């Protein structure tokens, strides 16, 4: 690799050719402030926050896109640069609605942090009082354009990462704003609710729809039996909301905090992830044997499912009919659990904690219900749970570790890794290979399907049958993969798709990490480590060996893929139109 | 913030649609096709309603949000056809300080349309223009080729009534 030598504030540094000035500065231990820049996603040099002085250049340059060159002398902290940073912020604040005291992003807002750093406390160019400009038509998020700085990070992830592209900059000049075509409310567009836009928004312009008030009300109602279940990746990220390092597994503290919030039962959705493997594995073998529709594609990710229904409606039959682990969890609580404990299903409030905003859409699907009651009553994101814990005054880091309640409280390592891209496939392969061959699966690690590459492929031998699998995450990658399947270029048997890049660990409901961290850390990989190390440390690593699952089939469900299982654990899909 | 919309029902013909489809086919594989296609589509229809933008989005495989963003960025693209009577109010400096804004408000009040829109019957459209070089007559508005100068808001009613009564 050819290298270039340059100096940052007089300090020599050597970086690979093609690096930006921003990256060179970072290598020299200097952080340059940015707002619009997201590496590989939004490299447009629009916000002017990252301006630096380069000796010999006519004016300040945008370090986020300016290539580092041999012999370049860069200064990041001169009076001119400082003046520029401050002026940029003052202009951004001139039409920003400053309700920082109550804004949901207060204290983790990137704009607020920079204003504090650069001492922007009086608002030089403020005009008349700025009114809220709110679109709350979508089920999962609220857009308040009065806090939007037009950085276009949301636009870029929507179009580039997710291949959805339902938002863009409309109008020009002072009227510029981010919106949908014809300024349709977002809820009327073909948005798939993935929430990646919220995850990357630097300000309070995009926030999830806060459903915690419904949970507080249920917890305060003594006539309700309130049950909660947590998704695999929540334990791997929740700690970030309390200042813990990325990739810290906080399962025990999470369980304790939920119990102390007042939930009557705290269960693990990882257990129903194991159940998903039993059902999905059975469905796959049946399709393989009986000439069913192949490739079969996983259906755990509600953003992906809605994407398929909307943009690839001709591939709906390829989707596994299995409900997501969340759906299976709710269905079992509403039926088996209620029956076993003699509780009227109507009196149970079922809450799920998810890494995901699309789960808020999933719980609203009328086909996911039992006897007129929804499988899940309320779905919260990791961030919303963190908000509840803070509000309740629980000292999260100091909490002791507790275990899940037993009914749905034991999960295999296979269930845990559901939260990362490739995890569902690996979990399925562990179980499939043992069921089909009758021999012990060794080794248990399927490295070919792990990691953050766009598309991963592998071929396995299941008792003489070659099975081709593919794994992808991020819907633009999924779209490429599906196009190859449609054109006949690829002939997979089994595909795993997760809507968010890297899978649920990088879901739209996960803790905010500023661009400053995102640009220099692979969040997807770092966060996934927590799940894979938990799996590796376990004795129970295969879904079909989970004693809870075995008992569940024996006592209640019958056979995997059997009549009762089908009734409770499977669903169907609907074609949707783009416009 | 301006929320632009089309205010007349779409009445595209099969002939126009065929032309648009041919146009899209011609540009389909060319990078950067959106601008020329929009320009020529506006030539075909006279404006760019949602129906036309959708055909372009689908045809060129570009998100509709992106198409709309481009259309609303450039002032030469319009979401509405011109009315039978095209009212232009000059918003040049002289006219502006002499109260052109009040004229627009009055017209909007009477006709129910904002600048850039057309009445549902297609009779009147309203635009605000840059300086038309008649500063001595400020504030000025034109209705097709008729020029009206030194206006006050209360003059608007009478002027519009004249055109309303014509067929």
What does it look like?
The complex is a heterodimer of chains A (579) and B (167). Chain A is an alpha/beta fold and 579 residues long. Chain A has 3 domains: 75 residues, Ubiquitin-like (UB roll) (Roll), CATH 3.10.20; 117 residues, Alpha-Beta Plaits, CATH 3.30.70; 357 residues, Rossmann fold (3-Layer(aba) Sandwich). In chain A, the strands form 6 sheets. Chain A has a 5-stranded mixed β-sheet with strand order 2-1-5-3-4, with helices on both faces. A 4-stranded parallel β-sheet of chain A has the order 12-11-14-17, sandwiched between helices. In chain A, strands 13-20-19-18 form a 4-stranded mixed β-sheet, sandwiched between helices. In chain A, strand 8 and strand 9 form a beta hairpin. In chain A, helix 9 crosses helix 11 and helix 9 crosses helix 15. Chain A is globular and about 75 Å long. Chain B has 167 residues and is α+β, with helices and mostly antiparallel strands. Chain B has 2 domains: 60 residues; 81 residues, Glutaredoxin. Chain B contains 7 helices and 4 strands, in the order H-H-H-H-E-H-H-E-E-E-H. Chain B has a 4-stranded mixed β-sheet with strand order 2-1-3-4, covered by helices on one side. In chain B, a hairpin with a 2-residue loop joins strand 3 and strand 4. In chain B, helix 1 runs parallel beside helix 3, helix 2 packs antiparallel against helix 3 and helix 3 crosses helix 4. Chain B starts with 13 loop residues before the first helix and ends with a helix. The interface between A and B is medium-sized, with 22 and 20 residues.
């Amino acid at each position: 690799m050819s290298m270039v030598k340059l100096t940052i504030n007089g300090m020599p540094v050597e970086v690979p050719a093609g690096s930006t000035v921003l990256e060179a500065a970072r290598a020299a231990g200097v952080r340059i402030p940015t707002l619009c820049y997201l590496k590989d996603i939004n490299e447009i040099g629009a916000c002017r926050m990252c301006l630096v002085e380069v000796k010999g250049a006519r004016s300040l340059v945008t370090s986020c896109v300016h290539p580092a060159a041999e012999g370049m002398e860069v200064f990041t902290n001169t009076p001119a640069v400082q003046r520029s940073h401050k002026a940029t912020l003052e202009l951004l604040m001139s039409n920003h609605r400053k309700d920082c005291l109550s804004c949901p992003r207060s204290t983790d807002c990137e704009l607020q942090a920079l204003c504090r750093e650069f001492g922007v406390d009086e608002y030089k160019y403020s005009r008349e009082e700025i009114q809220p400009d709110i679109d709350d038509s979508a089920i999962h998020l609220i857009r308040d354009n009065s806090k939007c700085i037009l950085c276009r990070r949301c636009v870029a992830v929507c179009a580039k990462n997710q291949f959805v592209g339902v938002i863009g900059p409309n109008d020009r000049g002072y009227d510029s704003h981010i919106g949908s075509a014809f300024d349709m409310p977002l809820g009327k567009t073909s948005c798939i609710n993935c929430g990646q836009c919220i995850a990357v928004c630097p300000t309070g312009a995009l926030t999830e729809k806060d459903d915690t008030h419904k949970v507080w009300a249920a917890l305060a109602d003594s006539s309700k039996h309130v049950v909660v279940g947590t998704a695999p990746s929540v334990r791997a990220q929740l700690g970030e909301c309390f200042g813990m390092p990325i990739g810290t597994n906080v399962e025990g503290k999470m369980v304790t905090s939920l119990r102390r919030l007042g939930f009557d039962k705290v269960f693990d959705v990882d257990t129903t992830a194991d159940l998903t493997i039993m059902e999905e594995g059975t469905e796959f073998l049946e399709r393989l044997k009986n000439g069913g529709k192949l490739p079969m594609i996983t259906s755990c990710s509600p953003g992906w499912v809605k994407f398929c229904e909307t943009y690839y409606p001709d591939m709906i039959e390829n989707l596994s009919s299995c409900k997501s682990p969340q759906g299976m969890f709710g269905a079992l609580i509403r039926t088996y659990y209620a029956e076993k404990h003699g509780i009227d299903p109507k009196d149970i409030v079922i809450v799920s904690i998810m890494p995901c905003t699309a789960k808020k859409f999933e719980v609203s699907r009328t086909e996911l219900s039992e006897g007129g009651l929804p499988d899940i009553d309320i779905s919260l994101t990791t961030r919303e749970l963190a908000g509840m814990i803070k509000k309740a005054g629980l000292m999260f880091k100091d909490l002791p570790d507790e275990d899940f309640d037993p009914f749905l409280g034991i999960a295999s390592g296979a269930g845990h890794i559901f939260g990362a891209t490739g995890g569902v496939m690996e979990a399925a392969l562990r179980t499939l290979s043992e069921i089909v061959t009758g021999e012990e699966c060794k080794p248990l690690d399927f490295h070919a399907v792990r990691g953050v590459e766009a598309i991963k492929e592998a071929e396995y031998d299941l008792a003489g049958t070659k099975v081709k699998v593919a794994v992808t995450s991020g819907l633009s990658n999924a779209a490429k993969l599906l196009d190859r399947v449609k054109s006949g270029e690829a002939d997979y048997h089994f595909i795993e798709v997760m809507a968010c890049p890297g899978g649920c660990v990088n879901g739209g409901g996960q803790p905010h990490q500023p661009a400053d961290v995102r640009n220099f850390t692979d969040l997807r990989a770092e966060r996934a480590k927590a799940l894979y190390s938990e799996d590796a440390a376990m004795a129970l690593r295969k879904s079909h060996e989970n004693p809870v699952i075995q008992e569940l089939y024996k006592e209640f469900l019958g056979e995997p893929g059997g009549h009762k299982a089908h009734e409770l654990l499977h669903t169907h899909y609907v074609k949707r139109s783009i416009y | 913030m301006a929320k632009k919309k089309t205010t007349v029902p779409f009445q595209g013909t099969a002939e126009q649609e065929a032309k648009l489809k041919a146009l899209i086919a011609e540009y389909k594989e060319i990078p950067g096709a959106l601008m020329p296609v929009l320009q020529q589509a506006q030539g075909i229809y006279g404006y760019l309603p949602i129906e036309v933008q959708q055909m372009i989005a689908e045809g060129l495989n570009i998100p509709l949000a992106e198409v709309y963003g481009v259309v609303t960025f450039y002032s030469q693209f319009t979401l509405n056809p011109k009315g039978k009577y095209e009212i232009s109010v000059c918003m040049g400096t002289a006219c502006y300080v002499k109260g052109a804004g009040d004229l627009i408000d009055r017209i909007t009040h009477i006709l129910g349309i904002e600048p850039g829109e057309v009445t549902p019957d297609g009779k009147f459209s309203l635009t605000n223009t840059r300086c038309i070089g008649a500063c001595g007559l400020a504030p000025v508005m034109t209705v097709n080729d008729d020029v009206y100068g030194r206006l006050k808001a209360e003059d608007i009613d009478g002027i519009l009534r004249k055109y309303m009564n014509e067929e």
